[in-house]
Fold this protein.
Amino acid sequence: MPLPIVATLRDAWSLFRRDRDLLIRLAAPFLFWPPLAVGLLVPDPPLPAEPAPGGGQGEATARAMAWFDSVGTWAGHYGGLYFAAYAIGMIGSAALFALVLSGGRFSVGQALRLGLRVAPRFLLAMILVALPTGVGMLLYILPGLYVAGRLMLVGPVLFAERRMPALAAIARSVVLTRGTGLSMAALAGCTYLGGMIAAQPFLLLGDRIEASGGNPVAMALVQGGAAAAGMAAGLAQVLIAVAAYRRLASRGI
């Protein structure tokens, strides 16, 4: 039976209203500040060079190798910072799941302690989820949203059900979302595409500021807006996942 999308979004909004103050206090240091720091301190990864007019296969191969080398150099300098920001964000998401699923019983500190305890399995599960989702996103977006929707319940499963390894949580999410793939894909689109669309104006404005000389105050404001959009998307993803999990788990599967 399909999952009612509007009702699930309404449930997620109710969860936000119930725990709004705690959720924002917990989300800000994990989902806002690390991306902001990366945006301000880390340059964008290098892009492939434009092909030379009349260049042959050899020129294209040389250009690709030069790009691979430049990306490798960039990753050597900044890859650790990117992964650290990602890991911190995942710890924050884990704590948010713990807080929301507690039904209002946990304080921020209690949610963070439980999130840290489950963080290794949660981080591994999110990396395993990101791989097929990323591949699907490269295949015209829709396959990626379908995969993301089927795997959206991994987080709630790790915190609401018995202790299980990352792969078992992924399998459990697939079982719970059986027959609701399109509904779950639509819910995934609310956060994945919604976050991308919300951040796009800030990214475009940042490109214009850089092209005009790169005013540091303006760049800080733009990067702050992009980080806020990312935080809102991450928080929405947690709330929607919990709302969907509760509806699907209530079927007794």
Observations:
- The mean pLDDT is 89.
